[in-house]
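Issue 218. Parser rejects a valid record. Input:
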Amino acid sequence: MSFKKSGGGLQDEQLELIRNPLACGYLRKHAIGTQSVENLDFFIAVDDFRVEFGETGVWEEDLESMIKMAADGSEETTWPSAVISEDHMRTVAAQIYDEFVSETSGSEVCISQTERERVADMIKNLAHFGNKVFDDAIKSAIVSIKRQIMPGFNLSRSHAQYMYVRDILATPVDKDEYDVRPPATSMIDDPAFDGSTAFAPDRRYALQEILSDHLLIEEFMKFLKSQHSSENLLCYMQLMEYDRTVAENPAEEAAAYARRLTQSNSTAQRLSQQSSRSSRAGATAANMASSAQSLRTLTSSSAAASDAFSLESDNDMILLEQAIKIYRLHLSSESPMEVFIPGKVRKQVLKGMSELKPELYEHVKALSYKSIQDSFKLFTASPRYARLVDLAADEYGALAGKQAGGGICGMLAGKGSGGGRTFERSTSRPSSAAASEASAEEKN
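Output the parser choked on:
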């Protein structure tokens, strides 16, 4: 049986866990505690290497036969593949060697000097050994995985966390979950705001100006919906909220309740009772109360989840809730608002769920923003974009003269602006002229 199918001796269920990106992230988290994580990382790197550089009809002999052919002087010396780049394959092989095999590596796996030298020789003769250059060296890592990592994983806290997150990610998305609040700021919150230029007839708002203004971004969203391409902007706004959570440590009063969001049916009530302590704490508590209710309905293992996450930090629990939501809404292949993201990026996100690093969604955000830029070019040529100045003047003109240092958000609170809106249930008020034109555009 081939390495690709057998995993070099690992059982099928063990191999399945390693090759499942979400499970692998939590398996790795568990492996860190066993002080054997470098063996797991080495196996993953070699497994990916074999898959990436596997080709039908090339390097299909088993390693023993290849070694015998090399000893007999009948090895392959010319590059046998017309599909796989030799330079790229050598680069990746060298990276794996430097990270896990070299004596100078900080992640060196435990292999003998003889095995180390054999791997180096095989890499030199890459045309003959191909994607099997690490098959000998990986054997000791497999032994470590089977003896030190796998036995305790099914009983570990990391496994319980994996099962909990897996179950929620598999839950169908409710349409109400797509509601996302636009920014609570507007152009006249900027200290440098100048009404004489902001509302000039020839004024053309840049993309960043639109994305940071609750009124303008709603108009952009309406255009994208008319083009059936709103998913990237919705995703981008969710990611910006995730970034704000990473950057701003929530108030202690609200954060203290975050990790209890699945403990009992009284969680939402307790969170709500704390909402008056501070504006930031109140906002976060309200969000967590909503999250508590929604997550309780998504999984039947709330007690197990409570125990699984009891040692996690409060802020991590808030981030996890947001990270899961973003994946379900915009990266899951089952979501109607799925964004176009390469499979490799999706795997990286799933694997990173266990660590929740600040850069978890950075690649996704960059790709979504690129798509938004492409859509913005179409928007600038539309009648709706041409109406933005009139719309902004109608909404902000009178308020601009009354602004008194506290920003526009409070003044607009009675009109349903800022925090009161969502993209799915917009309450913005266009000018009468803009309204009639918008109606005509929708009819067309």
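Fixed in the parser; the record now loads. The mean pLDDT is 77.
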